[in-house]
Design a protein that fits this description.
It is a single chain. The protein is α/β, with parallel strands linked by helices and 345 residues long. It has two domains: 157 residues, Rossmann fold; 181 residues, Dehydroquinate synthase-like - alpha domain (Dehydroquinate synthase-like, alpha domain), CATH 1.20.1090.10. The protein is built from 14 helices and ten strands. A four-stranded parallel beta sheet has the order 3-2-4-5. A hairpin with a 2-residue loop joins β6 and β7. α10 crosses α13 and α11 packs across α14. The N and C termini lie far apart (44 Å).
Length: 345
């Protein structure tokens, strides 16, 4: 995997138009969800000239990021007689780009796709890096593969379609990029939470630089999972409860806990812990994680993809820009992190 190009704003429109005009595509399909087909597809068609295409629409939301939805996509592609020179444009957030990339990469052993992310989260995270996949029960991204799009086009126009909660979900990942790579980026993001479009290229470049050194997550790329060992398990646990969290909210909780664990295992200074905690508590929901749920959440962590030989591993930080991966933790330390987070409230 070489990685793929990411184009921004009008340059992306030009690249897409040129690709559509000059390639040997036999059929173009735009994969949307029930939100983006009405909110984002018209904006896309204002930016490019595309007269002959088909639309495949999947149900919106994380709960639909499943193999059953993949089967829907495969059925539609088959009904449309899509051959191996077809092109799928994934127009949507992380669910669409993750699931779309996976489904298309399996269809007839793989056809080309382009990602056009429509959420801040997808722009800075899900649509780049080559990870595709679906959830398996409550386990996040448990089934998937690495598969690169032809390119990704980031168009900040789509940010105007987002509810504030989804916008902040993406900002959480941008803050993560600052924590693991650059305090300058962290400070810029936390100081400009209402207008982050100018910092999207910086976030993407941080991720791309790390991915280029370890495309299939054998080592260094694991640092991009700061906050995700606990955060993914928390997100999974609450997915089918009345207290559902969007991805960035769960990861914000996970980053607070893993920053606390970093003071215990990595030497992170208390002043930096306090800065991280305060930043997330200023912008994200603060929930109480009941002690009688600890065991269930810890059991979900046992399925984390960074684990080895049945032991839970997390990503810590020594300081801003100094991440450490493959830190083994016992259930007792995770419980301490839950207790710490709860007492903040």
């Amino acid at each position: 995997m070489k990685g793929h190009a990411v184009y921004y704003e009008s340059e992306g429109a030009e690249k897409l138009q040129s690709y559509l005009n000059n390639s040997s595509i036999t059929k173009t399909i735009i994969l949307c969800d029930t939100n983006t087909v009405s909110l984002c597809l018209p904006l896309l068609l204002e930016s490019i000239s595309l007269d002959n295409f088909e639309t495949v629409v999947i149900p919106a939301g994380e709960k639909n990021k499943t193999m059953a939805t993949c089967e829907l996509v495969w059925s539609k592609l088959t009904e449309l007689n899509t051959d191996r020179k077809g092109l799928v444009i994934n127009l949507g957030g992380g669910v669409v780009t993750d699931l779309g990339g996976f489904a298309v990469s399996c269809y007839k052993r793989g056809i080309d796709f382009i990602n056009i992310p429509t959420t801040l989260l997808a722009m800075v995270d899900a649509s780049t890096g080559g990870k595709t996949g679906v959830d398996f029960g409550v386990l996040k991204n448990h089934i998937g593969l690495f598969s690169e799009p032809i390119f990704t086009w980031v168009n900040s126009t789509f940010l105007g379609t987002l509810p504030q909660r989804e916008y902040l979900s993406g900002a959480s990942e941008m803050l993560k990029h600052g924590i693991i790579d650059s305090k300058v980026h962290f400070d810029a993001v936390r100081s400009n939470m209402e207008n982050l479009s100018q910092y999207i290229p910086d976030s993407v470049s941080i991720k791309q630089r790390i991915v280029a050194q370890d495309p299939t997550e054998k080592g260094l790329r694991k640092v991009l999972n700061f906050g995700h060992t606990l955060g993914h398990a928390i997100e999974s646990y609450y997915l089918h409860t009345n207290t559902q969290l969007v991805h960035g909210e769960a990861i914000a909780i996970g980053m607070q806990m893993e920053a606390y664990l970093s003071t215990l295992f990595c030497g992170l200074q208390e002043s930096n812990l306090e800065l991280i905690i305060q930043t997330f508590r200023n912008h994200y929901p603060n929930i109480t994680i009941l002690p009688d749920t600890y065991e269930s959440i810890i059991n979900l962590m046992l399925q984390d993809k960074k684990n080895e030989r049945g032991s839970v591993r997390f990503v810590g930080i020594k300081d801003f820009g100094e991440p450490v991966y493959d830190i083994e933790i016992e259930a007792s330390a995770i419980t301490k992190a839950f207790d710490y987070y709860n007492q903040l409230s």
